[in-house]
Structures are given as structure tokens and as C-alpha cells.
Amino acid sequence: MPAEAMPESDREVAIRIRDLEVGFGEKTIMKGLDLDVYRGEILGFVGASGTGKSVLTRAILGLVPKRRGTIEVFGENLDELTPSSRKAIERRWGVLFQHGALFSSLTVKQNVQVPMREYLDLSERLLDELAMLKIEMVGLQPDAAEKRPADLSGGMIKRAALARALALDPEIVFLDEPTSGLDPIGAGEFDDLIATLQKTLGLTVFMVTHDLDSLYSVCDRVAALGDGKIIAAGPIETLLASQHPWLRAYFHGKRARAVAGGV
Ligand SMILES: Nc1ncnc2c1ncn2[C@@H]1O[C@H](COP(=O)(O)OP(=O)(O)OP(=O)(O)O)[C@@H](O)[C@H]1O
Ligand SMILES: [Mg+2]
């Protein structure tokens, strides 16, 4: 049975978040947040600007501290890891950040090699071969390898950043608004690339997005953040049927896309 047809209770969980609270100073960004991300799915993560989608992503990665709650990745509680098991978990995920996706002073190839140099002990020749493989995998021409971000189009930068996220052959990739700033055709091509890579590499994808087309075309499930909690999670039909005011405005408002079949 395909994984997405299995009852949710039987599915293997890649990321389990329980009772998460994150805040800065006086401000509480999320509280009592629970979320499961299943292995092998593309989870689309939506929410109004400033609700904390990037903060949640960074909290999972350990880049912002949490006040309470647990985060498990592949069944391991991230608070209980030794430094070496922490390093081992970090090798199993890759990240495409929302801002500053690439180091501007480095070439594409050098950017892709940053995580490789941090986590692997490889010869320069092997580093070059591996980087070229990743660059090809995301649909960039080999001559992009020696270019710097300033010489690339927006779409090429996103692809290069994806190549870097894939540098360590991760099992989970976090993509924070990977298609923002791309024209609809470029965004569609990027979505197709993510879907193809997800299938061929068996990736689990956590994708923050505002792009309705991405939600419809590539996401297996969608989770929505609002008021510091998950307000709905499930197949897109579940979110379309939600009565939550933000979800109604988002999916059925003036800028929502006309859904085939008239949902
Ligand atoms: N390091 C920080 N210190 C203080 N406040 C922060 C920090 N990082 C984020 N915030 C605040 O947390 C809130 C959530 O920010 P976040 O970037 O996660 O929003 P978002 O949902 O990703 O929005 P967008 O869709 O615009 O990317 C915002 O109010 C932001 O100002
Ligand atoms: Mg964000």
C-alpha cells in the first residue's frame, strides 16, 4: 500500500513535535504546538506572514531555543543527544533557508561543498565530483559551478541552494519558501524538481510556502500555523473544508486560485 494511503496512526514519523513553546523576550511565538511529519511525505507548511513558520523551522534545527516541549527526529529526542549523535542527526537533514540562501563570496560549487567540508572528510577531487553531481541533479549546467550568486538568476540561486541542501544526501530537507520570488513558470519547474527528487531519493520534505500552486501540486499534506498552534493539518481537502477564518480567506478569498472541480 502506498505510504500516503496508510492510516496516519500506522505511518512512520520522521519529525514529532509535542507541546512546543518558543518565544523571544516578552513575546510568545508558539505555544502548545503539536505536529507530526511522516517519513517520505512532502508537508506544506503555511501561515500568515510573521506567525512563526521560519522560527519553527529554526527551532527544529536547534537554531532558536525552545522554552518547553519535545522535538524528536527519527525517534530521537533532540534534547537527549550526545554531541556525536547530534552531529549524526544533522547529517541526515539539509536546509534551504528563506534568506541568504547562499554565501555571496563563494562560487556555487564552493557553496555546495560547505556542508561536505563540515561533516565529511573527503579529498578535494571527491569533493569536486560530489558537488558537480549535486549541481547536475538540480538541473543546473556544469558551468554554473564556478559562478557566484550575483551572476545567477533567482531560479538558479534557488537551485544552487537546493544542491547545497542535498550535499550530504539527507533524508529530510527543510525548504523555507523555495519558490518565493520566482515567476510562475520557474516556480512550477522548481516544484516539479522537488517532486522528482522526493520520489527518486525517498526524501521527507518540510516545505514552508505561500505558493498555493505548490500546495496543490506537490504537497501530500498541508499544516497551517495560526495563533501559535497548528490550526489544521491533513490532505489539502481537509484544509479547504476548515472553517478557520484565516484558512477560509487564504483558500477561498479573492486571491485564492480557482480550483479545478470547483472545491
Ligand atoms: N531572533 C529573533 N528575535 C526576536 N524575534 C524574532 C526572532 N526571529 C523571529 N522573530 C519574530 O518571530 C515572529 C515570527 O517570525 P517568522 O520569521 O518565523 O515568521 P514567518 O511565519 O516565517 O513569516 P514570513 O511568512 O514573512 O516568512 C516575528 O514576529 C518575528 O519578528
Ligand atoms: Mg519565514
UniProtKB/TrEMBL annotation:
Keywords, sorted A to Z: ATP-binding, Nucleotide-binding, Transport
Gene3D superfamilies from the UniProt entry: P-loop containing nucleotide triphosphate hydrolases
SUPFAM superfamilies named in the record: P-loop containing nucleoside triphosphate hydrolases
Molecular functions (GO terms): ATP binding
UniProt cross-references to InterPro entries, sorted A to Z: AAA+_ATPase, ABC_transporter-like_ATP-bd, ABC_transporter-like_CS, P-loop_NTPase
Transmembrane segments: none
Residue ranges annotated for the ABC transporter domain, each copy included: 15-252
Family: Belongs to the ABC transporter superfamily.
Protein name stated in the entry: ABC transporter ATP-binding protein
Species for this entry: Chelatococcus albus
